[in-house]
Design a protein that fits this description.
The complex is a heterodimer of chains A (118) and B (110).
Chain A: E1 4-7, E2 10-13, E3 18-25, E4 31-37, E5 44-50, E6 53-57, E7 64-70, E8 73-79, E9 87-94, E10 108-109, E11 113-117
Parallel strand pairs in A: 2-11
Antiparallel strand pairs in A: 1-3, 3-8, 4-5, 4-9, 5-6, 7-8, 9-10, 9-11
Chain B: E1 4-7, E2 10-14, E3 19-25, E4 31-37, E5 44-49, E6 55-58, E7 61-65, E8 71-76, E9 85-94, E10 97-100, E11 104-109
Parallel strand pairs in B: 2-11
Antiparallel strand pairs in B: 1-3, 3-8, 4-5, 4-9, 6-7, 7-8, 9-10, 9-11
């Protein structure tokens, strides 16, 4: 199983709503990532969890709140978003062996959640 | 910042032609990855490179990790219509920090 599964595939929300994006992998990977991708742009790193601990936060606004309940699951909680937050949100995972932050990693991506904020 | 400069931005080629694209940076990378992304989908890993000078093939795809560790290229031979998509290079600086190039949009005319 080499899949990273993201739900929902599409999400439309208002600026006052609270919603969550979910990501799951069963490859035994210990690093999980959230990326944001605007149309015709490359993915931009938002957060990295390593061994269920937040290791990278790329100065993301607090209206995005990540959570890693266990090594297989990664959530992104959304609250009071703005229309400019509309984008494809991608989850990824990588193996990260040995308990230290790896420097030779392959990232495997999910299909993404296409988010529209009205 | 540690930017990746990917070129060309777009390519329009005839089916059967070979394609070449590359990424350069002012920073040294530990790993270079090449991804393909179709509309509305996540990037799919094509080739991973770990050592300076490494040349790796995956079917009609060949990629190399530059000797200086600051660049990489991807070649596609004998292109087919399903090669259409956006190709991204990605470089790992360290500590799970993976950065992406701006992408090369490939169009293949039958």
């Amino acid at each position: 199983d080499t899949e990273v599964t993201q739900t929902p595939k599409h999400l439309v929300m208002g600026m006052t709503n609270k919603k969550s994006l979910k990501c799951e992998q069963h490859m035994g990977h210990r690093a999980m990532y959230w990326y944001k991708q605007k149309a015709k742009k490359p993915p931009e790193l938002m957060f990295v969890y390593s061994y269920e601990k937040l290791s990278i936060n790329e100065s993301v606004p607090s209206r995005f709140s990540p959570e890693c309940p266990n090594s297989s699951l990664l959530n992104l909680h959304l609250h009071a978003l703005q229309p400019e937050d509309s984008a494809l949100y991608l989850c990824a995972s990588s193996q990260e062996e040995g308990g230290y932050r790896a420097t030779n990693e392959k990232l495997f991506f999910g299909s993404g959640t296409q988010l529209s904020v009205l | 910042g540690q930017q990746l400069n990917q070129s060309p931005q777009s390519m329009f080629i005839q089916e059967g032609e070979d394609v070449s694209m590359n990424c350069t940076s002012s920073s040294i990378f530990n790993t270079w990855l090449w991804y393909k992304q179709d509309p509305g989908e996540g990037p799919v890993l094509l080739i991973a490179l770990y050592k300076a000078g490494e040349l790796t093939s995956n079917g009609r795809l060949t990629a190399q990790f530059g000797i200086t560790r600051k660049d990489s290229f991807l070649n596609i031979s004998a292109s087919i219509p399903s090669d259409v998509g956006i190709y991204f290079c990605a470089g790992q600086l360290g500590n799970n920090d993976m950065r992406f190039g701006a992408g090369t949009r490939l169009t293949v005319k039958p």
